[in-house]
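Homework help thread (please don't just give me the answer)

Our assignment gives two proteins as sequence + structure token strings and asks us to describe the second one. The first is just a warm-up. Here they are:
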Amino acid sequence: MSENNIYVSQHKRKKRTFYSILGLISDCIIIPVIIIALFSSFVLYSNQRKNEIKSVFGVSFVAIQSGSMMAGGFNIGDIVIINSVNTDNLRPKSDDYAGDIIAFYYVEDIADENIKKTLITDFDNIPEPTKDSIPNRKDKDEVIKETTRIYFHRVVGVYVDETGTRFFKTKGDSNGSADAYYIREDFVAGKYVNTPIWIRSIFRFCASGPGMIALVVLPLTVLIFMQMLSLLEQISALMIERKVIAGYIKFNDKESINANVGYEMREFDKIYFFDAIKENKQELKEFLWVYPENARISKRLSKHLKVVDKAINTYYELGSKEYWDFWKKHFKRKRVLKKIKILYFASLYYKGGRKYEDAVKLAKKDIKKYNI
């Protein structure tokens, strides 16, 4: 039988099973969708509960938490992208400029209330500072720990105080008036980066209750179901393999071939099986050690297959005992050597007419009794 035998062909077909196709779908679609949904929920939770805006390489994501910017095209639940920004470059809304949109911690600092603030109308000629610092100002890290909301509004005015610190007057596009407090530059989290409506809509849906069910709960249920099917398939294949090794099922029966037994069998079981079974040895070799053309043969496996050829030549030329001696010399790990030793004696008992299970029990008993 050639290398393009029934076992190789069956393995190729197995690679295209229903489970493999579902696995590919999960890798390419389901898993990325779950990641996006969980990410969106994390952003929403962080913004609402922890008042945190996580930044990665200067890029952050902010969830719109109110309808104050709906007139500007932003809906509640939208998740938008912001960049860290030099606040010196922020510009207000004017006749010829839409005004920068910023995300900020909405903070009222008593220390700033009575400080003189000058509206900047000419950004090329900003008043020079006359003071070094303002006492008792709140620190940004301290503010984040407090119960402080994150806002997303448009800049409508830029001011500067006596220390050169900038303040921003902001306004929601849907609001009738500007926000009550000036936002100190320390509390600006970032500037809005144009985020297409369809991206914002996807993020909003992902973070919603129905979105979490559709994109996380259901896909996870499918993945778990697929894994269970795969596990059941593996258990079934393993049970068939044990029956083949025990001699209850012929190795070239359809059931064995469908379960891909020869390809999946452990190496020491292959060594035992080749010696114990009386059928055509060339067919046995192809069943156990011929790999499909599309299989990736590593250098290690290629080297091992050459060892297999030497072992089989030893079997043909010198016999079964020398075949087992060859394998005993080849393997160095104690666990494998112990298994080889058991299977060697088991093969003798099996060829003598014992059942596989009884042969293995007797082999173990003799090894222990005679300290072999």
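The one we have to describe:
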Amino acid sequence: MEARVTLSKQELSELKRAKMLLENPGLAARLSSMLGSPIERGMAMLPARFQTTVHKASEAAMMKALDVAVRSLGEQGVDTRPSKDRAHKFAAAASGAVGGAFGLLALSVELPVSTTIMLRSIADIAKSEGENVQHIDTRLACLTVFALGGRSESDNAAESGYFAARVAMASAVSEAAKYLAEKGMSKAGAPALVRLVSLISARFGIVVSEKAAAQAIPIIGAASGALINTLFIEHFQNTARGHFIVRRLEKIHGTDPVKRAYQQL
């Protein structure tokens, strides 16, 4: 019979915080609350071929993020000092101001920039939770935060969206980690990497669509574009914090006990 593992009161408090961050209202709800307009209104204003633009921009942003994650994500392996969330928000706001000023035309240029800023912030959060960003496993965990921050219709409603998303990504992450460990980024078009990027960008694109829809509402300009990007990066910072709290507890107690405790909260 499997032994029951009990998390301490402090660990359960941390897990409760993680769940609150991971299962909180999505970006669309927060944007609608801020703007006083439902995101559906913005969606209705977007060109018919907009989803194709989002798909291409999201895939390009994820491929750029993968390259950054593998080649240059942090010189220090472990650094548990507090993450610099506010500094990264300022940087994201600056790129959002450009996006707000030029609208949808800037998406293909602005998105890779803001995604790279967010990836740096995610890695910073990972380090603050005790992760070693020199390990390929941690770097891919940083990258998959972009998938965990966007829900897919295929997610299993019978269990937590967070864990369903992790299960959906597990095989692709494992294959990509094995490939990168053996061959690095010598061939960015390798099937293992293309599959991972495709899975992440499909989920990431949902959130990108919501962001772009908000920027399509007529009242949005450079200033509001900066505010939208601040909420955009905050959304993924919250996801990253929750994800790496869960990973830290899993390293202590194992995946199944933490998952059970998470679902019972």
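TA reply:
I won't write it for you, but here's a hint about the kind of observation we're looking for: The first helix runs from residue 9 to 22.
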